[in-house]
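Bench notes, bay 3.
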Amino acid sequence: MNANARQRLRDALLAAELLAKELDGKTRDGFLSDPWFRAATERQLEIIGEALNHVRREESSVVDQFPTIHEWVALRNVLTHLYDRVDLQIVWDSVNDDLTPLMKMLRYLLKQSEDDDPEG
């Protein structure tokens, strides 16, 4: 894996870890009632989606190993381009249900890339 794609995976993982940390103890109602927290959540999801969009373009082999990569990019596109139609329940469900598997996949891909290229 090239160094740029590896860095994008790190960027996505950092954003996901930040979200996971900040979500700890948050309720759905707390999320929905806090516009600043919603905005921060959406920003981290945009970073994740943008980073993964670059990865899928630069390292097509990752797509076969990462079945949900397109969904993360699509979520980023909705947040960015259709901001006025964002379904907050989908955002909440994504960060609650899909963030842990995402972090696991990102760690796996980073470990695999480091094993393949210990210098990188």
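Next record in the batch:
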Amino acid sequence: MSNEDKDTVAENLVKSWVKILKEAGYSYDEMIIIFRTAKLKADCLIAKAQL
């Protein structure tokens, strides 16, 4: 899978998450916090896997 394909998959995934969160009543400000928290968790898991 090329990097462009991976980017497209990631963009589609984020769009679907935003749709789900919006339908659940979350504001865009709340979504920013959710995505930042998810990024921090992912960074921690990646760092742990590299040990």
